[in-house]
Input
Amino acid sequence: MRLTASRKWIGRKWRPRLATVVVAILMLVMALPLVGLFFFRLYENQLIRQTEAELIAQGAVISAFYAQEVREAGVPLEKLGTPLPQTGAGASRSNPGGPYRPIEPQLDLASDSVLPTRPDGTAATADPVFAAIGARLSGILDATQKTTLAGFRLLDPRGVVIAGRSEVGQSLAEVQEVREALGGGYASVLRLRIPEQPAPPLYSVSRGTRVRVFVAMPVVVDDHVAGVVYVSRTPNNIVKHLYGERGKVTLAAIAILGGTLLIGLVFLRTVSRPIYALIDRTQRIAAGERDAIRPLDHHGTYEMAELSAAFLDMAEKLQARSDSIQTFATHVSHELKSPLTAIQGAAELLRDSGSAMDDEERRRFSNNIVTDAGRLNLLVRRLLDLARAENLAPSGESASVAAALALLPVDTRLTVQAGAGGDLALRISAENAAIVLANLIDNSARHGATLVSVTATSAAGRATVEVSDDGAGISPSNRARIFEPFFTTRRSSGGTGMGLGIVLALLKAHDGTIRLVDSGRGTRFEIVLPVG
Output
């Protein structure tokens, strides 16, 4: 009933199973490398910036050669292009009065729009002077392109290509970045590239693999635009590298999958399987199967073994306590039944016999009723004393053996002698110590003792109290049972068999022990308690 109620209470709130949590974690771990492919955008953007920086450097070198050729050709100012502004953004960018004119990469794959593919040029005629300059620089451009893989176009002040393979003689003046460069400003854009071959399927996750970087740099001579260096190149990308290493990537994926499955198998065997086995064992124990109180076949981990051992130890103790309660109840019912039966029988005889019973018989039956009622009263008091002792919380008080003996009433049946260590403080109250000694002394008196000796010694924070008598002693056959509740050899003389049980419970409550030790004559008990 209680287990069912607890299961209903647990079921009020949804909770995932352990296996579900583990599978979710393993799937997340397995997906992390794949998810990582979508986080290389920052790396791709860095590659875009790196490509732009390389094109700026290459364009600056070609621009210097171009400007030198224009100066050596003695091209008049009227044939040059737009004069550079001396104020505003253009002047600041060219910075003609300063020693350095740095140009920083400015493209951003995340925020900049990717323009369509570059439009084709239109037919035009280049100035012969600039056409000759382009012819002289074509060899340098071809040699540079073989190493850098960049595409170079040299344009005259009107935007006509004077060097650049098949596009020589075509005008690119209407191209956005070229138009800005002809106006005296640096320009760079991202455009969709025209692939020379179909892109691998893996390229679909990347944006950087479909673009080409275009850089237009004005060539400045005497503060006039003498032409434009137009450079472009496809940036490097990590996807291309991954596709090239697709065999290794596949092996890595297999290794990740295998590792995940191995982790899941290890977790299943070391955690999940023992937990479910323990749950099954719990249900079997709750159903009353005594054979279920045994170690699990597989514990998995140290913590699981400790948990299993603690649980089974608890179950074993609860089972033992249940058996003890059942045995105790059987003994109590038996002890109560005998005097109750005697009282009932005597009362029925008194009622049914009426005047036919003489005074002596009536007195005898009445005495039997009083005696058995007194035994019931004594038994109930002893049961209350035992229950109180088993549930006693130590008060932390300390008392000596002499203080405990002083609380005992004078017993005319024997002599109590306090030996060495009478002033040794014990971690138990005087009242409880007196109860312990009173029960032991009463047992000695019932077994014919005339002298009881009590001594105490201490060592390593523990005190040993010996209580010995000169009585008849305890027979070997009864020595193992003396601490069992209701066991007594003096039932006819009023013994309840609960005295030593009360003593044992009181001492346990104070972290103490008691045992019967061998002696030459009589009985000797050894009590061990913490020193107060």
Confidence is low (pLDDT under 50) at residues 87-94, 202-208.
